[in-house]
């Protein structure tokens, strides 16, 4: 069942990238980041494979993926910013079924945003599902645009570079990642949670050191 879904998506991503080059990578990532299900776990590994063939550079595909990711994220952000939660939910209820977008995914994204604040715009880029939907609550909450773009760009660059590098290492076997991208997402989720935990621990430890300075001899 999974392969029947992934196959046409993979074909579409391959066609765009093969036809348009770096612009195709940017376009495909913009589609994904605009909450349309074209998995980056297919887009970037294939691009990485083309790096191994000498058609692209690793830095080039990461930059192209980041540019597209930010553009797509801005489209979702704008929908939330100008339309508000009511319009976003109305659009999802009416058109979501055509793009495999569900209202509960928005609910999850809003919970994450409310719980973790604007910084989740960065960390969510390393998490499954939530990474594409976090732009909606960010827009609804009218998050500062400069901060949103910065977080989205840095997080997307890390994500696209990692996936591109994996595709580069896999070479002609790049598509094996697409078949197991849900399992890979789980690993990324764990890694992301550990990163968040480390970040919080580091901040608390630093705050404690300022609260209790060592006395001078």
Quaternary structure state of the chains depicted = single chain
Number of domains: 1
Residue share in helix = over 70%
Low-confidence stretches: none
Largest sheet: none
Number of strands: 0
Which structural class is indicated by helix and strand composition? mainly alpha
Please state the overall shape, judged from the principal axes of the Cα atoms: globular
| Number of separate helices | 11
Notable features of this structure?
217 residues, mainly alpha, 11 helices, 79% helix, 0% strand, globular
Q: Can you put this structure into words, describing what you see?
A:
The chain has one domain. Helix content is about 80%, strand content about 0%. The protein contains eleven helices and no strands. The chain has helices spanning about 1-20, 20-35, 40-50, 60-95, 105-115, 120-125, 130-135, 135-140, 145-170, 175-180, 180-210.
What's a concise summary of this model?
This protein has 217 residues and is an all-alpha fold.
Secondary structure layout:
Layout: H1 2-20, H2 22-33, H3 40-52, H4 58-95, H5 103-116, H6 120-123, H7 130-133, H8 135-140, H9 145-170, H10 175-179, H11 181-211
